[in-house]
Known about the structure:
- The structure holds 2 protein chains of 2 kinds.
- Chain A is α/β, with parallel strands linked by helices.
- Helices cover 49% and strands 15% of the residues of chain A.
- Chain A has helices at 2-12, 28-40, 60-71, 76-89, 100-106, 108-117, 134-142, 157-166, 188-200, 214-220, 231-240, 245-252, and strands at 16-22, 45-49, 94-97, 122-124, 146-151, 171-174, 205-208, 226-229.
- In chain B, the strands form 4 sheets. In chain B, strands 3-4-14-9-10-13 form a 6-stranded mixed β-sheet, sandwiched between helices. In chain B, strands 7-6-5-8 form a 4-stranded parallel β-sheet, sandwiched between helices.
- In chain B, helix 12 (329-343) crosses helix 13.
- The A-B interface holds A 52-54, 56-57, 59, 63, 67, 70, 75-76, 99-102, 104-106, 126-129, 131-132, 150-156, 159, 163, 174, 177-179, 182 and B 1, 4, 12-22, 160-161, 166, 170, 173-174, 177-181, 275, 277-281, 286, 288, 290-294.
- Pyridoxal-5'-phosphate (PLP) binds next to helix 5, helix 10 and helix 13 of chain B.
Amino acid sequence: MLESYLDNRLKQKEILLMTHIVLGYPTFEDAFKIIESMVNAGVDLMELQIPFSEPIADGPVILHANQKALAKGATVKKCVDFAKTVAETFEIPFLFMSYYNILFKYGVERFVDTMAENGLQGAIVPDLPPEEGKDYLEAMDKHRLSPILIFSPSTSDERMNYLGAFGRGFIYCVARKGVTGVDTDFSRQLENYLVRCRKATDLPLALGFGVKERADIDFLKGKADIAVIGSETIRLVDKEGVGAVEAFIKTLR
Amino acid sequence: MKDRGYYKKFGGAYLPEMLVSTFDELVEIFQTAKNDPGFWEEYVDIMSTYSCRPTPITFAQNLTRHFGGARIYVKREDLNHTGAHKANNVIGQGLLVKRMGKTRVIAETGAGQHGVATATMAARFGFKCTIYMGEVDVQRQRPNVFWMERLGAEVITVTEGTRILKDAINESFRDWVTHMDTTHYVLGTACGPHPFPEMVSYFQSIIGQEARKQILDQAGGLPDRIYACVGGGSNALGIFNAFLDDPVDLVGVEAGGEGLETGRHASRLSSKDASVGVAQGYKTYFLQDNDGQMRETHSVAAGLDYVGVSPILAQYAETGRIRFEAATDREVMDALSLTIQKEGLIPALESAHAFAQALKEAPAMTPKDIILINQSGRGDKDIFTIADAFADPKWQAFIKEKAEGYHA
Ligand SMILES: Cc1ncc(COP(=O)(O)O)c(C=O)c1O
């Protein structure tokens, strides 16, 4: 299970690293190489985003990656098959990230069954609050998979408690307002927010949105358990190619 | 989340966590306003002094005589300030923005009518204003872009996705999730997460409230059929709401584009091409593929060129209370031409869809029958598209001359 894996890892490392890629971007072959580099560089777990045509929580970098992956013919079937290979090949846990319509059209239960069969450990669905996600949460629970719930700075203490009760594995704490791929101010305010998150749940805390360099991760040590690198690796791949990924990830550790 | 707004299985509030508290605030402000009798009075007062409410009903005597079938009446939402029903919703939400103490409004627009209405409201109420508009729509509704900018709004051209209405909605959400502390998103139709479908149709219900009284007075009875075009569904719900319990055939007319059989259309409820899905924060029928990726839509009318449809209308499509039809681009141009020539009315391309379907059905009815068409807006904004459709040589010569004047 994801939680025990994270607990063990956290005994060895001060902070864990989760990275994100968009499946089929730039191609499936390249996505595989990126994952390989990330695992070699010591990433602890990964989000695999199934592209969607309307990714409203994503900023321009990830949005374009979604659009290009779809234009090149990424389908849900290809993503699911690819994820199976990846989960069989590499030791670290993999999570799906996508928008709810992808699950809904596939059939929520069937989607979760497939995740379990293919060796995925959890999922992040940013447009599915627990109020709308009863079927999903039940299906995930049945397979002992982790639905990753999200906290944001605008979430009240009361609601954090409510969300925390549905979360498994860890909580994804969004660092600031806005979409992915915009800079975050690593400040006192962020620290206070993480203290608030910590009070609301016993689950490990992941902090994402705007994390892009060593200094950001150092700031998070002792405050969060997992640092999430999202848009930054896509930006790097766009600029310098797949070959640059491993060295970049190594600078973060 | 306080409350999620379902219409049978449609609707809901599929929100990113960042927006949950903003929606809770909006739901509360709206419910409080709705329960305050003074609020509706204030709304009607502004609509009658700043806009042109009540808008009249016109008996289309020449079209009636031309077809020799049903008696045709037209509800004149084109006479609203800014030229469309969009003002009803925008002024209503503007009053809520004042109550919330926010200082900036944003909106998506397709035809540009909702954008112009929002920019106008912002100028009047003293808000900052940003409008998101797809690149394709900026091209085809250029006069409205000009007016939005004159009114002081910043117009942002959206180059993502299919570059039309749905993409402008996505960008508006991306702005909102960044600036919700100061900003209200004035969604322009009865779609999106709860409470928008309910709230937008509440403000638009003023159309039907007036129309029901007017038609009883002027025609001496209830209409047999009412026609309204359906983009997101706000003008249709606005006029239909008052007649839901009456024995009246309600007809929503969607964009048939190049014909349903071509796949190049925006007919979600009248074609077999749409299926239930969840996007842009709500559950309804979407034109999407089997994976759930949204498809490209087509219509000559930017305001109807949209992948989703109001969850409230999806519910009435399933119960059969509202009948849905499609009118093609060609049929719309013909109906528009005839209406201009016979009645001196210039409907917007969107509204002309309602005319097209009504004019298809009117001849088979009798003079005892009454039909009511909702003319949701005026067609001035469509001057370039209509001139192209009729390949107007004098207009083309004028544009060339004008371009030379700019040394283009
Ligand atoms: C004149 C006019 N009518 C109709 C519509 C379609 O919207 P709705 O279906 O919400 O009335 C628009 C949208 O831009 C419009 O400008």
